[in-house]
Amino acid sequence: MTPRYVARSPAIAARLLGDEMIVMSARDSTLFTLNPVATEIWQAADGRTPLADIVQARICANFEVDPATAYQDALTLVEDLAARGILLLSDQPIPSAPQP
Amino acid sequence: MAAARALDVVVDIAGIPLRLRTRDPAFSRMLRERYASFLRTSAPPRICQLDIHLTPSDRPPADADQDVRVTRRSNRWRFERGDFVCEWDPRWRRGWIRQSPNPYSVDSVLRILHSLLAAAQGGFLLHAASAIRNARAFLFAGLSGAGKTTIARLAPPDVTLLTDEISYVRPRAGQFWAFGTPFAGDLEHAGTNVSAPVAALFLLAKGDLTQSEPVRPVEAAYALLRNILFFATDADLVRPVFYSACEFVRRVPVRCLTFVPDPSAWDLVK
Questions:
Q1: Residue-wise over A72-83: b if at least 16 C-beta within 10 A, else e?
Q2: Going by fewer Cβ within 10 Å, which terminus of chain A is more open, N or C?
Q3: ipTM for the whole complex
Q4: In chain A, which residues have their Cβ closer than 8 Å to the Cβ of B217?
């Protein structure tokens, strides 16, 4: 399996309010709310840690889900967030990513 | 020169004085009357200034209903609508307006300019009525028809109205404060030029029952952002407004106020 890396897009703004993450695309001011799983991935998205490691440490450790399913769901989620310009997704580490 | 300066009008909104410079005595008089409660007789040396260039009033009527365009080119802002053009340089805090001699164009420019000035200070202008009761400010937000003017009209005598249309919110000494504005809605008169720390934001909804319910922080942020008056689409300015709105809902209780239009609505405002 090719490792995948995720990083926060520099073109967004985000804040944790209560237990929910609100994210705004600075490009067109669209607002998104991240669910708890997406928030975990968002908080760990440093561009250096492989997605599989994030899923293991943040999702499998906190939610009752088997690792294979968790990874597949996480990949679908980050692809969707990448398509919306909220996350960057790459086969290589993303060194210049904004740090959590 | 002294005669020309005598026509200057210094309008102080939310503690931000702005010199409006015109050579037209009638226009200067109109400004003094319109912003009477917000005038300053003295001004600090590095005051914001707008030079107003009036175009002949016999020109074809401009389209005031056209959407405002706010753009930034290098360091200068440009505001445009059918009835005015304005350029603003934030480095020098100077700008100019070209418009016909009417009160509405300059009033719109002031709203746009203050939305930028407030954003730079961690604040915002909000589609909201606001009022002070017991030294605390309450905001009542909603777009047109939500009940801002209605709630303002129902205010009991111990309430000081800050505005029935556009509220000015910015941080001061670790708290969010609401300031009176001259920007009037259907009530058609300027607010009182005073300020107080914000105690609560009510999101207005008309209903068959008067009640107030807490709103989830994310929901509150969405509603607040929907009601913030902001024309620029520049990412560098949109981002701080987003952070200010999030900070506001972290610090200030936000409630949904459904009300029947009678004075009992104010029983829940404490």
A1: eebbebbeebbe
A2: N
A3: 0.83
A4: 17-18, 20
